[in-house]
Amino acid sequence: MAVTALQKPKTEKAHIFAWEGVDRRGNRVKGDLRAPSVALVRADLRRQGVNPTKVRKKAQPLFGGGKRKITSQDLTVFSRQLATMMAAGVPLVQAFDIVGRGHDNPSMQDLLLAIKQDIESGTAMADALRKYPLYFDDLVCNLVAAGEAAGVLDVLLDKIATYKEKTESIKGKIKKAMFYPAAVILVAIGVTVVILLFVIPQFKALFSSFGADLPAFTLLVISLSDILREYWWAATLAVGGAVWGIGQLFKRSRKFREILDRVVLKVPVIGGILNKAAIARFARTLSTMFAAGVPLVEALDSVAGATGNIVYGNAVRKMREEVATGQSLQLTMRQRNLFPHMVIQMTAIGEESGALDEMLAKVADFYEEEVDNAVDALSSLLEPLIMVVIGGLVGGLVVAMYLPIFKLAAVV
Q: What is the pLDDT of residue 173?
């Protein structure tokens, strides 16, 4: 039976219980435990050698009930923890139990304990993960299935953890590159609005007593202030509506996202960083899957969704169709006009030598370092540029207000 991406874990609602008891040495101990019922808490404590004397359900927080969204960072940390435990020889079910109960995100606890129950009932780990495609994509499920089939699940889990860590690192660098200029521009706009709303009117009252004509630049700024003060509600609605509309288009329209991705890739400096990041993701994902023994055509299907950009995703899907007809990977890459010559040559060498995964891993390492360096360079470049923008906005308003004073002083 098909399972939708929004399916919830099939488990009872868990609560946090405060417990007190006596351990094997006769010492009084206490703590908190998350479980669906008091009976399960008592059973779990007895398995740990604790004789429970008191178990009570703790009150839930007033807002949110302690639940929070499962993030990609949660899944990355879980991947590394599970890989480490499997490498240490901890049985799979026990590893899920330890990681699940020890996680500080209750939603993640519910998810992992639900998967653990499926595995305990005899379901393969890959099949258990496929029930939750919102959190575990085809790439992870395929790698886990390959590891289970070959008896090297610990090795594949380590590859998954490494892949997720590097992917999160790239995403973090991209966010850093986009956040800094956006934050400064918002601050500049906020300062400008405050000056127009509260400072300019004070100067206007002062200028009205001059009884002289004001400079055109000053009149323009005063007019902007008057319009903003009178129609601030309309401006707020317009900005809010525009943000909401763009957000809805981004969520619902693939065509809009494709246009946006295509435009962003052509933006100076920022576009170069995003191109390098997409190539790094492409190379890292394909290298990881190919090294795990996943066939190239099947691997490309998962890689298309991991590039983080629809333009590259569409190109990879087209490459998959051509590779399925017998064309070489490097030839299909050359026809897309998206990949640099060095990437194509490294891929060609990898195909000819039978070491495609190693060559792609080197490409990924190179471009991840390139993204890191480009983000640092962007920060250095933007600092003086942002100072010029803020100085131009605020300085322009100040000059507009002092021009009449200078003019009056010249007349006197």
A: 77
